[in-house]
UniProtKB/TrEMBL annotation, chains A, B, C, D:
Pathway: Amino-acid biosynthesis; L-arginine biosynthesis; L-arginine from L-ornithine and carbamoyl phosphate: step 2/3. This is Argininosuccinate synthase. It is found in: Cytoplasm. The gene is argG. It catalyses: L-citrulline + L-aspartate + ATP = 2-(N(omega)-L-arginino)succinate + AMP + diphosphate + H(+).
Amino acid sequence: MSKEKVVLAYSGGLDTSVEIAWLKNQGYDVIACCIDVGEEKDLVEVQKKAKQVGAVGSIVIDAQQEFAEEFCLTALQAHAYYEGEYPLISALSRPLIAQKLVEVAKEYGAIAIAHGCTGKGNDQVRFETAIHALAPTIKIEDPIRDQHMSREMEIEYAKENNIPIPIKKESPYSIDENLWGRANECGILEDPWAAAPADAYERTLPLEEAPDQPDYLEITFEKGIPVALEGEQYPLHELIKKVNQLAGKHGIGRIDHVENRLIGIKSREIYEAPGAEVLLTAHKDLEDLTTTKDLAHFKPLIEQEIANTIYNGLWFTPLFKSLQAFLKESQKEVNGIVRVKLFKGNAICEGRKSANSLYDLNLATYTDADSFDQEAAAGFIKLYSLPSVVHSQVAQKNAAKKVDNLES
Amino acid sequence: MSKEKVVLAYSGGLDTSVEIAWLKNQGYDVIACCIDVGEEKDLVEVQKKAKQVGAVGSIVIDAQQEFAEEFCLTALQAHAYYEGEYPLISALSRPLIAQKLVEVAKEYGAIAIAHGCTGKGNDQVRFETAIHALAPTIKIEDPIRDQHMSREMEIEYAKENNIPIPIKKESPYSIDENLWGRANECGILEDPWAAAPADAYERTLPLEEAPDQPDYLEITFEKGIPVALEGEQYPLHELIKKVNQLAGKHGIGRIDHVENRLIGIKSREIYEAPGAEVLLTAHKDLEDLTTTKDLAHFKPLIEQEIANTIYNGLWFTPLFKSLQAFLKESQKEVNGIVRVKLFKGNAICEGRKSANSLYDLNLATYTDADSFDQEAAAGFIKLYSLPSVVHSQVAQKNAAKKVDNLES
Amino acid sequence: MSKEKVVLAYSGGLDTSVEIAWLKNQGYDVIACCIDVGEEKDLVEVQKKAKQVGAVGSIVIDAQQEFAEEFCLTALQAHAYYEGEYPLISALSRPLIAQKLVEVAKEYGAIAIAHGCTGKGNDQVRFETAIHALAPTIKIEDPIRDQHMSREMEIEYAKENNIPIPIKKESPYSIDENLWGRANECGILEDPWAAAPADAYERTLPLEEAPDQPDYLEITFEKGIPVALEGEQYPLHELIKKVNQLAGKHGIGRIDHVENRLIGIKSREIYEAPGAEVLLTAHKDLEDLTTTKDLAHFKPLIEQEIANTIYNGLWFTPLFKSLQAFLKESQKEVNGIVRVKLFKGNAICEGRKSANSLYDLNLATYTDADSFDQEAAAGFIKLYSLPSVVHSQVAQKNAAKKVDNLES
Amino acid sequence: MSKEKVVLAYSGGLDTSVEIAWLKNQGYDVIACCIDVGEEKDLVEVQKKAKQVGAVGSIVIDAQQEFAEEFCLTALQAHAYYEGEYPLISALSRPLIAQKLVEVAKEYGAIAIAHGCTGKGNDQVRFETAIHALAPTIKIEDPIRDQHMSREMEIEYAKENNIPIPIKKESPYSIDENLWGRANECGILEDPWAAAPADAYERTLPLEEAPDQPDYLEITFEKGIPVALEGEQYPLHELIKKVNQLAGKHGIGRIDHVENRLIGIKSREIYEAPGAEVLLTAHKDLEDLTTTKDLAHFKPLIEQEIANTIYNGLWFTPLFKSLQAFLKESQKEVNGIVRVKLFKGNAICEGRKSANSLYDLNLATYTDADSFDQEAAAGFIKLYSLPSVVHSQVAQKNAAKKVDNLES
């Protein structure tokens, strides 16, 4: 009789290798699945290893283009910074990974999906909520959390099950990375008064080592999508990689953030998002030029909700679809070019131009300082300040009455 | 018979000197009034000049401490950036200046207040709305706008009225500055594609000239108020000046912003706010450590409204008082020290500590990775994702029905 | 030589009849244009009268269906009440009327559009902003406001130009009405302490005269659109009329509102919106059943912005398009039937059902009070209250320290 | 050796009587505590019964005045309706009850607090979060949830422990009530398509039995607090009771709501809040008259957050304190009298007056339709519509370019 199948989100590390053994010991056929969202790891090796440690199937999916065009783009256009600081690196990849796992599970008739998140983080919530939303009846396995596996127990379990244990000293950090950036927690970083050590960073040079000459980059946007660098067109995932490299060289995009996790605690995180930082800055700058004031002033409410919704793992919800509909409509006139200076950790928008610029010297209405405008201003101020005048008159009348009452 | 009096907001420049003459020619006794909010000008000279060109009285008021403790502090605690970028420099001083003008007008029995704003800017609206709110029946004179005085007309009028005309070539820029920063518009800046030239800046060194060694600054906050630098206490206006100098040396706080003016047009502005940038960054960082998640997530709505309300000249309104009440209450636990690295245009919060830290390794609830927590997480996720599960089940049931209907 | 043409928004009343004469005297050929949005007036008479008083052309456009399907529907789905009370009657028709005027102007090559709004109301702003948005260079004429025409001047001008003056005593009220409701201001209503007199209302019976037997109405919605009454399908504009009649008979939908006008003053308005009230109540009730919590909790921000944007005459803006995109997406699952009891001024939703109901007794997850759920609740509460626990522990530790310091 | 003490929130019903026995059997000395927030029960009987079934102490606390002045008043001034419909009846009393339990626990040196909430409701979360916030280390006991006690088990347990079992047939409903209203769930109400039966209501007459003559009620507010009815002053809790009676007689305040519970499910609830409905309507009406537009337009964001925060059991949090600070400041000018007509389920504000009225016929600025105003309007519209004009011109220019490109 054939066994039930489980699809496991596999990374190649000790945690998920042990999970293969554990799931197998529970009676499952394990299909390991590694989704490439731009970690820049050797995924051929990862794919091989899954088989070696007992998976019946091992799949690698290149999801970089989809990740860029659907997920990173939403974050970019929404200026999505969680708590004003974190550009949603891991949070952004979780729904896509969950979606791929569900697709594989359906294709192979698996009855369960497994992941290796701990019980103190956000990702367990994001994975499970996304999987539930796409496949409400599928079983979810998380032995690391549910079996309370400590590091020591994992090593023991690995030995018993012939899983190779990494020889070299483990990094003190817990890393997650993708096209949009790199996240780092644990170790010395747990003391928020301590500065992050040099080796906490990988994608960005320290400012002290950044070049003494700036680079200038012209980024072309069409409908809010970055489509070209220096006039040359790239698919979005390639474009992001190029900007990552250039901006990383200039030490741009380091973030040190004490943040509120979804599950009720504060944590201290180190992020690197060089490309994201440059693209987010440039996109906002172009919106400043092309977006009407009322839209520009309302959009931040949508942006904050998008950032929270992504952070909270609620990508596949009717709310998020509605927010995205707003966002997409808001981008129709975000066309043009921004010139960014990259230098010593700074991404400086020095110039911007657009056929949709609402700042236009040639529009007579605001380039001539003519008498008519100035009369309009007087009328405008009269009505604009009318509520203040009325309020003030009533307040003074009431104050005067009180004085009369006291005196009489 | 004595003449009616007018109080004029006097800067010492050509505009307001011509206004003294014009107001005098209308039959007023002019009381010139210069309010010091940290421009770092020679105000003794300004005071003298007003008399020379015809004012019957000339007053200088040092409002720096009040400006810092009431106005800059509100902007700091509210993380008040207009459109996410402009830290409200000029907008911040206008209500205080209006308040002082009204106080002087009441003291001297003046029937009017005069200012020298043009008809295309925000400041005319801010001044007049603030004056109306404080003195709803006082007359407001703005000859520059209402007489449509061009530069040439002003020079002509100055000659006729024995007002000295500045000999040296005028700056191409229109500058306004105070403790919180420096604003610059006009000239070459009107082309948003052109980079701002070097001479547009004055308070900050260019990054290329910034020192190759960082400075580190420990800033102490009590109830959200910065009270000490490197452990040494300063009155707030002195503290801001100190940070301005240090941060300016490192090229921190340059802003290049295409913004939506209150009166319906977009303009391009260059700002420098070195001290503000450092203090704003540090204050947010300390809030990240000390503020509960729900407050931290709601406060940005208050912050955006405060920024807009200040920008729009509505300081003296019941709405603003209510917003300030929220803000003040929110600061009670924002105590602690932030260590900032100042380097090459960057203000980097490297460490933060507080007796009110909600990130606390000693709290057993989140330093032990115990089984209990992890079970709690599973329960949490179950209820947290329940709406997604139910929604998904209903959607799938409906999709199945549709297929049935099509097939039958 | 042919004359320049102007298109006039014509109502048949004295104001706009006088305008025909005035515009003619300015040298225009006047094309009168009456847009039917459901006022239930004799528009054949209005069309004839325009010619009689001097228009070269007179056009009546039946825009009821478009008004219902585009404008009323947006207001319905957005639960659009200005200031929580006014369901946007006049504000809703203005953009459609402006759009039709612009279309006629383009068709006939007119260089100007004229309307007859006073200088104290909202409608002048709404008309002109909408016309500017659709035809930024067309000239706008508003002689009533710009010539400061008083009632007496209008009568004088009418006599001189052979315009018939209404014989019967004028109503003391200023009325505007359409499919969505009826607005009434002026006269005795200007005293906000005085109750509105009986003759201020026309579409609704007084509660005292409403029937002693309720009516019950089952309203079917598809994607948030009311499509059937008692199971019988109607085009939306017919459906609204039917509900207006039935609800009006039961005295439903009277509104007495002191509101903040766009131009800075408060006014007191009497509205009747019987059909709107019933449909808005039923639509919200169905959303309660079919919409996920997170969407239901965020949508009010969108709703308030939609209401303000419509009230403020900003229908034809990029912001409004983005808000509508959100709204449309949010309606996809608002399918089902609501049973409303209409009785003595009350529209009471007594029952609701839907294939998209997220309240479903058959979903095991929340119909069984099983042990699993209850354990989940304990875990949920543990993490949910964790921030409160941590905050409280820190606060108590600090309080204890203060006591120690005082005692030592 | 003395036993550890537990304080139990005691209602006199079977659930909490069984809990006394269970807690006793765990080795606790039980102190029963009944907090009167206006249920109108015989609390002397309840107090006696606790002793009879085994409590070592039994306390009744009259908290009605505190409940009115602190909790109901906040809800009133915040127009706090959860999801726009539910005026927060039970949610409002939970923090006060928790506070009293904690006070009693501290007074008697108890180590635990017990309540009798089920695992599917909101109240378990509200109680425990509030208790945690006030006493983070105290133990919480909830045997009903944690021992999975079904009705049958409770009866068995009662028999074994000599607890009298209610003889008369139990109500099919689960009721909670206080000064602010009455909440009802379960039974037939679980079918959202079924109308609530007559016996689901107790505080309000059915419309069919409501009197055929209206009552008129003048309610006086000072700083947003209702202080007098018909000119006669009452303490707030007495005033609420009076309005409850009068409004209940007219069938006002019935609510039938499908709502989203805190713990992830939808439930259908029947509420009665006659007094709350009248006071909330009147308070909003007075704010319309006395509050400036900008405050009136921003306050709903605060209101929605307050409603959610109370519903979610987060009264004792820094966020809530900040929201209350805003709210309190916003009420300073909400003074005046509202005349409400109570009739057939309707609370109709027919008139309102105030010394702080911002609608004032005597203010020349908007009672004279003078030429000046109307010119101001033209200027206002010019600047107000300027962004639309510019946007439209740019859009048309771009559209024309596209046509040129296609044609060339």
